Structure formats: C-alpha cells, structure tokens
Amino acid sequence: MTTASAASGASQEPVGPVDSSRVPRYAGPATFARLPRLDQVGTADVAVVGVPFDTGVSYRPGARFGGNAIREASRLLRPYNPAQDASPFALAQVADAGDIAANPFNINEAVETIEAAADDLLDTGARLMTLGGDHTIALPLLRSMAKKHGPVALLHFDAHLDTWDTYFGAEYTHGTPFRRAVEEGILDTSALSHVGTRGPLYGKKDLDDDEKMGFGIVTSADVMRRGVDEIADQLRQRIGDRPLYISIDIDVLDPAHAPGTGTPEAGGLTSRELLEILRGLSTCNLISADLVEVAPAYDHAEITSVAASHTAYELTTIMSRQIAAGRG
Ligand SMILES: N=C(N)NCCCC(=O)O
Ligand SMILES: [Zn+2]
Ligand SMILES: [Zn+2]
After folding, report:
1. What's the start-to-end Cα distance of the chain, in Å?
2. What Å distances lie between residue 300 and 263, 268, 296, CA to CA?
3. How far is the C-alpha of 328 from the C-alpha of 152, rounded, in Å?
4. Is ipTM > 0.90 here?
5. Ligand 3 centroid vs 56 CA: distance in angstroms?
6. Are the beta carbons of 111 and 181 closer than 8 angstroms?
7. Of 72, 75, 158, 281, which is most buried with the most CB atoms under 10 A?
8. What is the pTM of this model?
9. Where are the domains of the chain?
10. How far is residue 26 from each of residues 18, 99, 308, measured CA to CA in Å?
11. Residue range 174-187, pLDDT digits in tens
C-alpha cells in the first residue's frame, strides 16, 4: 500500500471518514463520503475531485452543480462495501481534493486547466475519481491519463456515443470527447466499449463512424437480454490487463433512476444493473474514473445524486482494493 502519511505525520493508517455514530451525518460541510480533504492528509492514493464545468452541453445546463450534489448525497455511504467485501477507505487513503476551477466562458481554456490540474494530481501518485461536470471533461482527463500510462482502454457507460464530430462548429463539447480522444491517439483502440447505448441518432453514419474508431457497443437492450454477468465477462475479456479508464455518464441510467441529467433518454439501465456490472469489473486494472452529467436542478429527492454517489463508491472500492493488493 502506498498509504499517504497524514499531515501531522502521526499515522501511517489511512484517515477515514467522519464517524457517523458520533457526528450526525448531516452535520458539517460535505466532502465525498465524509472523507478528509486532501489538504488534511497531504497526499492520497485516490483523489476524489470535482469539475464544476458545463459549458459543453447541447441541451439542459446544470451539470456544474453535479459534484457538490453527489458529495451531499454521499453522506449516507457507510465504510464497509459488502458487495466487494472491502472497506475502501481503510485499504487506501481516499481524500476529497476539492474542485478544479475551470473558466466557464472559454471552453478551450477550461480544457487546458482541467488537463493541467489532472496532471498535478496524477503526479502525486493518486488515481482520480472525478465528479463532473459535463462529458466534455473526459477529454482533458484522458489526455492526462495517456501522458502517464500511454493509450488507455476505455469503458464508456452512456446513453450516447459521444463520438460526434462538432456542434455549431465547436470541437470540444459533451457530445464529442471520444472522437477527439481517438484522433489524438490517446486511447487503446483495441479495447474500447460503450455500454448502455440507446436512443435516436442523427443517422446510421454515427454508428459506422463509431465502429471505424474501434468502439464496440453493448446496448442497454443487450444488458437486459443477456444479463449483467455475461456482459461483465465479455468486457473483462476485451480489456484484459490493459490500463483501464472508466467514464460514466449518469444518463446511462434510465430517467426513472436518474432524472437529474441534461440529455435524458428512455430505456436505460437500472442503478442495480450498473452497480453489478461495475462489481464484475473489480479485477480490471482501473487507473482512474469519472462520473459526469449529474444536473441536480432536474433531480427529485436526490434520486440521481444517490445513484451517482453509490456508483462512485463502487469505483473507489475497485481502486482501493487494487492499491491494497499492490497493483499498478
Ligand atoms: N454526453 C451527453 N450527456 N450527451 C451528448 C448528447 C449530444 C447531443 O445533443 O446530441
Ligand atoms: Zn449521455
Ligand atoms: Zn456522455
């Protein structure tokens, strides 16, 4: 384990979440899962970082508030994850690194800022669990990953392909990050998959282009027909031991499970299916992940942000287990 020493230097053990049996879980400012802030522990094995940026959206705005909504909803997470038989915050130092301050009036500058901030965090040895923000942010994050790991395998959970070319002439939008990433050679094109794809497209060419880029597609109907175990097996085989980046657009979930998002599409995954597929990937070499497109203004009773907080918890658990096992 590459446990960070606490700022006090007193302890080699990870600093965990605030104890909810002593301090009510609704008290105090929210960090992800009530974990310490990064500045309280010095360095972390897994840094949870927010990117409040949504200038790249094509429809409803508001994902800039997603990270904080997920932090609020994550107050109810508990320290032991029975589904993976692991206590993620005891196995590794997980900390909340706060937010990357990206310019909302200049997408190009924001993309540069996000890449530089991700570089800085990766340089400390941390893996990232990034909370968006709209899907534009996946591009600078992938650039940063490729600088460290070379071209990475990508699992992209989303209703949408996000391999479109431009919107209104703009190259950097939430519908285009993965086309840019393929063009830039930062993805391992032998191990790319979309999961949960569905809904109307602009034309059949969208699918042809996407296939030429190297993506495989597991539609949401495939998940329903074939079941989560078979899908997870297939994905694991495709990924093998490659460094894996997982990007999750919360709209992969059905609007019944995630109403709080900008471009909702009917017929999506249940939160149970998403969590189970992720658990089935726990042996993959997960280098970092993002979770994007939570737009709390359209949410109800925190349905979306609760689903998002549990999703980030599973991803964090996978990374913590691998760190504890000395991987990567
Ligand atoms: N990445 C998300 N959520 N949506 C992309 C939708 C792009 C479009 O409006 O066609
Ligand atoms: Zn989407
Ligand atoms: Zn997306």
Report:
1. 11
2. 16, 18, 8
3. 13
4. yes
5. 11
6. no
7. 158
8. 0.96
9. 3-324
10. 11, 21, 18
11. 999 999 999 999 99
Q: Give the number of the ligand closest to the Cα of residue 156.
A: 3
Structural contact between residues 85 and 148, judged by C-beta atoms closer than 8 angstroms: no
Q: What separation in Å is there between the alpha carbon of 242 and the centre of ligand 1?
A: 28
Report the pocket of ligand 1 as residue ranges, CB < 6 Å: 58-59, 135, 160, 162, 174-175, 249, 251, 262-263, 293
Taking the C-alpha atoms of residue 310 and residue 26, their distance in angstroms, rounded to an integer, is 17
- What is the whole-number distance in angstroms between the Cα of residue 142 and the centre of ligand 3? 14
Query: Contact, 304 vs 250, CB < 8 A?
Result: yes
List pLDDT tens digits, range 4-63.
Answer: 444 444 457 999 999 999 999 999 999 999 999 999 999 999 999 999 999 999 999 999
Q: Which of 203, 77, 188, 185 is nearest to 129 (CA)?
A: 77
134, 174 contact by CB (below 8 A): yes
